[in-house]
Write a structure and sequence with these properties.
The chain is of the alpha/beta class. The protein contains 23 helices and 29 strands. Helix content is 31%, strand content 18%. Helix 5 (125-141) crosses helix 6 (171-186). The chain binds beta-D-glucopyranose (BGC).
């Protein structure tokens, strides 16, 4: 009897369980209807398990339930509906997870891709898409559902500590490059989270900074890149930023997250918060900030209480929840994908090695110093960064890479013989200097969170240089900078300092006295002063921070196995004070200092509490080219190992699209690729406009000497519009425009006039 009862109860329980609705793409509304308010609240918040860079690489709290160790966080699960956790991990230069796990012999290193600035400097959306596909493969094979990138804030000022993660001072470049990498990553069936939406253009007081931005600058500069990206790629998620814009936290801004993002641009997916940026929960839910990451118990309580007392609307919660569940059903984790934890890192390394030169920018190359003559073998290698390259930046944008090929190794692989005496000197110095730098930074640095402060170059005395010039055939000098999340850079970090000047001057003098050349490599994540370097270098190669294959990629360029075909996506000013935003930018005050101060005190400091974007739309080349102000290197600039001629430029109209074509011919002696830029000058109208603005770009395929290619670039009537604050609309003036086919913003090759009819796109009068 007892036994029969047990069997019947078991059957009953079983049938209740199996009749429970399990989430499918088709029954989302039903699942929402069946959820308790506590469950709904839980789904709107997530979890975090300590990032790999916060020092929890091998020993997590066993109760924490990290699915992929070192990932930035998980979304919530509800077993009874079959809703799994999904995993979100940083970051823009590769999957940022812990490389080792306790009691596990395997390793979980991820490819270190080149930083965002290098990727954008390729000006090649096809190549960026392809890199995205292998990046996305690692996301998927390591069991991650969403990678928290790309970073796409505008490079308003060279000192922003996270510029290395970002793409450009120009929204067209940012938007198109971001869309390309997102489409590449997402082609694997995993998600992305372009960030930080929006106005997070400085690290100083990033969590509480109020960015005061005019309507026009917001629409044309700081939101435009996101608009282009959303329309061209529909990322699975978008990360809202920490800061305020015009007095409202972006995470609480319905104007930004619903009116503009969804109603105007047609975004369909979820918005997630930047990490631990807890704000007013009610405002966040209402704004359409669907998912709080990582979220906490207090926020769950706020939602539950708010639903009970009516201060949070059920319709808003259900709307956000629906978007979250629509996201969940797309994820590999929901689909039960069996990830391998073994992406083919070697194959990826080969592709990264080949791609990086395409974003390296040759800034100077007198007398064809580069590529180096094949007879040159003996190299004097100066600069401590030559012996320990920066492959990427720090903070969440860091990646635990299996290795980094430094320049010494790269040159060695390329068959160069590196001067032994200098090797010994730098090996000793490196030990001392990096130890000093680490101790100055405290414990965080050992986990790679904060950027290392600049390490001075050793002072070596005249004869070290003279003797090195005797022994070697050429000198290579590396100037390096590290930067990262939480800290803006300083004037010192931008400038070339006396110790560096000494190294550059002495090298140049010693080698030139012997008729030998000097190559300078810039291993930086952001813009630095270059005017003083120009005098002491025969060639300057901006190698950026090129990822784990750094030394190999650079050596390939030096010896001519690859060629540089990158161009600058930001202006390189002569002095920092030439940049209009510098007067309204924090000079180096950063998180390290902030944690020792009270928030209220920080908020009183100019450009920390509030930053006034007084320069309006005059950012980067829009300012420099219009004002005719001299620069070190203009936007769009980059030499190669060959030369190109432009001819036969035309603009044709097809409906509301314009098709611009130009023939590009390789007129030099080596193969190469050319990034062609199309700037447009508008006729005089009611609004003041820059001399010209970038409206399209394209890169040729590899052209052999003598070979030509017709390049096609398209843009629309809407792309030509400026934002009119009076009517809250994007207005395209009627009239005759000039299309400028250019090799850089300062090197316009062909001009073509074309007629445009008037256009107007009404926007909402919001975010004031
Ligand atoms: C950063 C984000 C990052 C997140 C998760 C935040 O501090 O600003 O870029 O994705 O942490 O690590």
């Amino acid at each position: 009897m007892k036994k029969t009862f047990l069997v019947i109860s078991a059957l009953l329980i079983g049938s209740t369980l199996s009749s429970q609705t399990k989430l499918t793409p088709k029954n989302i509304d039903k699942v929402i209807k069946e959820m308790s308010i506590e469950e709904k609240a839980k789904m709107l918040t997530g979890y975090s398990f300590g990032h790999s860079y916060w020092g929890l690489p091998t020993d997590p709290d066993p109760n924490a339930g990290a699915i992929v160790l070192g990932a930035a966080g998980n979304t919530a699960n509800i077993e009874r509906f079959g809703i799994p956790h999904t995993v979100m991990s940083d970051g823009p230069a590769g999957v940022n997870i812990a490389p080792k796990r306790k009691n596990d012999q395997n390793s979980y290193y991820c490819s270190g891709f080149p930083i965002g600035s290098l990727i954008a400097s390729t000006w090649d959306t096809g190549l960026v898409y392809n890199l995205g596909t292998i990046f996305g493969n690692e996301v998927k094979e390591y069991g991650v559902d969403v990678v928290l990138g790309p970073g796409m804030n505008i490079m308003r000022n060279p000192l922003c500590g996270r510029n290395f993660e970002y793409y450009s001072e120009d929204p067209f470049v940012s938007g198109l490059i971001a869309a390309a990498i997102i489409n590449g990553i997402q082609s694997n069936g995993v998600g992305t989270s372009p960030k930080h939406f929006a106005g997070n253009n400085q690290e100083g007081n990033r969590t509480h900074n109020n960015a005061v931005i005019s309507q026009r600058a917001l629409r044309e500069i700081y939101l435009k890149g996101y608009e282009i990206m959303v329309k061209k790629s529909q990322p699975w998620t978008i990360m809202s930023s920490y800061n305020y814009i015009n007095g409202v936290y972006t995470q609480e801004s319905k104007d930004l997250l619903t009116t503009i993002l969804r109603d105007e641009w047609g975004y369909k997916n979820i918005v997630i918060t930047d990490w631990t940026g807890t704000r007013n929960t009610k405002a966040q839910v209402n704004a359409g900030n669907d998912l709080m990451m990582p979220g906490n118990a207090e926020q769950i309580k706020h939602i539950v209480d708010g639903l009970k007392d009516g201060s949070i609307k059920m319709a808003d919660v259900d709307r956000n929840l629906k978007r979250i569940l629509e996201y969940v059903v797309k994820t590999p984790r929901y689909m039960g994908y069996k990830y391998s934890n073994k992406p083919n890192l070697n194959a990826h390394a080969e592709k990264i090695r080949k791609a990086a030169p395409e974003g390296m920018v040759l800034l100077k190359n007198d007398d064809n110093t580069l590529p180096m003559h094949s007879k040159i073998k003996k190299v004097a290698l100066f600069g401590h960064t030559s012996y320990k390259l920066y492959a990427g930046g720090t903070g969440s944008g860091n990646v635990n890479k299996p290795y980094v090929i430094d320049l010494l190794k790269g040159l060695d692989n390329a068959g160069m013989i590196i001067d032994d005496t200098l090797k010994t000197v730098y090996a000793k110095y490196k030990e001392y200097a990096h130890h000093e730098a680490e101790s100055e930074m405290g414990t965080f640095t050992t986990n790679g969170y904060f950027p290392r402060p600049r390490v001075k170059e050793p002072s070596m005395g005249e004869y070290t240089y003279i003797n090195a010039a005797d022994r070697n055939e050429i000198a290579i000098v590396t100037v390096g900078r590290s930067s990262g999340e939480g800290c803006d850079r300083t004037f010192e970090d931008f400038n070339i300092n006396p110790d560096e000047m000494d190294m550059l001057e002495q090298t140049y003098k010693a080698f030139h006295n012997k008729g030998k050349k000097v190559i300078v490599i810039l291993n930086v994540g952001g813009v630095i002063e270059t005017a003083p370097i120009q005098k002491y270098a025969d060639a300057i190669l901006l190698a950026w921070q090129p990822g784990m294959e750094a030394g190999n990629s650079i050596a390939d360029v030096l010896i001519g196995k690859s060629y540089p075909s990158g161009k600058l996506t930001m202006t390189w000013p002569i002095k920092l004070t030439d940049v209009p935003s510098t007067k309204n930018f924090p000079n180096g005050f950063n998180w390290r200092d902030e944690i020792f101060k009270k928030q209220d005190d920080i908020n009183k400091i100019p450009n920390l509490g509030e930053t006034r974007y007084e320069e309006g739309i005059n950012v980067g080349y829009r300012y420099f080219q219009t004002a005719g102000k001299e620069v070190s290197y203009p936007f769009g600039f980059g030499l190669g190992y060959t030369k190109f001629e432009y001819s036969d430029a035309k603009v044709q109209r097809k409906g509301d699209r314009y098709i611009a074509t130009v023939t590009v011919k390789n007129v030099g002696n080596s193969k190469g690729k050319e990034a062609v830029q199309l700037y447009v000058t508008a006729p005089a109208g009611e609004l003041d406009k820059p001399a010209f603005e970038l409206k399209a770009f394209a890169k040729t395929h590899e052209l052999q000497p003598g070979e030509s290619q017709q390049i096609k670039m398209t843009f629309t009537n809407y792309d030509l519009a400026s934002y009119d604050e009076k009517s809250s609309s994007f207005v395209t003036d009627k009239g005759t425009y000039i299309a400028r086919f250019a090799a850089s913003a300062a090197d316009i090759r062909q001009n073509v006039e074309f007629k445009v009819s008037a256009g107007i796109v009404k926007c909402h009068d919001v975010m004031k």
